[in-house]
Predict the structure.
Amino acid sequence: MKNYSNCFVVFTILVMFLLLASQGILAAGLTINVGSVIAEAGDAVIIPVSFEDIPTVGINNCDFRIGFDNTVLEAVSVSVGGIVPRPTLDFYSYINNDGEYVSFLFADEEQQGNNLIYDDGVFANIEFKVLTDAPSGLTEITVSNVGAFADYDLNTMEVETIAGGITVEGGVVIEVPEAPILNSAVADDGNVTLDWSSVSDANGYEVKYGTSSGSYSQQIDVENTTSYTVSGLTNGTTYYFVVTAYNSAGSSDNSNQLSATPESDEPTDIGQIELELSQNTTTTTNTINPTYTLSNIGTSSISLSDVKIRYYYTIDGGQTQNFWCDNGAIVSPSYSNITSSVEGTFTEMSSSTSDVDYYLEIGFSGNTLAAGATAEIQTRFVKDDWSNYDQSNDFSFNNAENVTVYINGQLVWGNVPEGGTIEVPAAPELNSVEAGVGSVNLDWNSVTDADGYIIKYGTVSANYTQEIDVASSTAYTVSNLLNTTYYFVVVAYNEAGNSDNSNELSATPQDDNESTEFTIDIEIATASPGDTVTIPIKLINVPSAGINNCDFRVGFDSNVLEVVDVSTGDIIPRPALDFYSYINTEEEYVSFLFADEEQQGNNLIYDDGVFTNIEFRVLAGAPAGLTKITVSSVGAFADYDLNVFEVETETGGITVSN
């Protein structure tokens, strides 16, 4: 057995394979089967990795990875299995405990077809040590990546995989994780975007939601992410969301609940209601007892939870008041009692007049008023001391047209008294935007009658592609930003609607120039639809040992961009010999491979600078704003001794300006 260094023939085989595999050449299939055992914490065990149903043409070359959990296991050694004809010449392995994998490579180094694998059996044995603090239960060992299996003519084979593992007995007991904190639920057209806190020891998260508070009929396992957009929702329906964290021990309690109501960008008919009013006509009384008859005169059902009725009057004192609903019912076309869903709230007017200083708002906790249906609500309210009201000057007294009805905050019936209109708040003033490392701090003035604020921003002036509801705060830090210019506005909102945008301010987040980590850095450019633009891909803080080989992918949005060309950068010593690239538009990536073909350590990458340039064309009709270009996958970066480097990545992109 030997390591990967000094294997020019093997490298050539792999390059030939990559070129053939990209053309979709396939042959018969086989199975990689990972064994299973039982062990205790501290034990060393052998896991066989076997090949089954090997095609009769034999295996000329193959490469794959076995993945494991390094919080439970440590890979100690690898030995060759009995089906490999020449173990010391054609078999290669590499253990990477930090990366949680063992990689394997087999290739008939003579390339004469004389030393292929034909027989089913054990290809390799991996010795694992079970860590002393390993948790009880099954830890899986999987085939985490399959590169290529090919015959002598380099026809590739389809490969199935069977996972194995180690069942640990008597290990550490894993605790159920704590509940996460659900930070925000931002509604859009047909969807809601959620964001929550990360929880220690969580393996993943589950979003739960439904249309009734505290009742969650839908569940989505979003794996190990802390934000998610729930799509396919019904506009105008309020959804209630919680998040749970989970690990092998179970699921946490629910997070706090947040609600959001998706709304269409298109204007909608919220409904039509007609109101009739009856009440005692005595002007001096200790009990005001309006009865409201609501008729849905529109063509669509109305959710009564969206309906508010307001009765305006003078309190004639300052006492506490009490409300009762004596009877509430949908009376036609069929009878249905809804008394328990009727709620009443007293509100003192911010500015009083001779005929109004209070209003009673009646709402509903549920039920639906179908098109053509009628509901009757019998109510009464009194002061704590049962003293009299003088109704003679009350705005709504015995006058149905002076009782207002709102649906989703919009007035659909009645006259609003002076001072009783809920106005859309004024636009706030955005005072400052201060750029930080990957973030921007915003500060704005408070607006009277605002219930909350929304930050809107994007990478093109006056084109805001992102929104964050920050509730009632007047300062906020927008994070996870790139090193490009962003444009910000703030709007205030209340139940009457949203204000106009504030003034616009811009800021450019800083790069982390103090970072000393080895990084793949993608640049940012600005272009218009139809333009071609070159995006450099740089390597920064290249380790002093140099890069002997590396492979990674750069991802892009094919709905916005088309890759035109790839060229080598100036830090590659021998571009024509050691640099390879492959454009895959359908799967939206460009893959790169660099390897010193001589494998003598003479042609490594030592300098920071441009590794490659990708020329993109911005498609006609591309939307304005930033389209991100990311490092979508990193294989391995290694020095001459095949020590693997950790790699950071910096996202770039193209700001499309129409």
Observations:
- The radius of gyration is 34 Å.
- The longest strand covers residues 137-150.
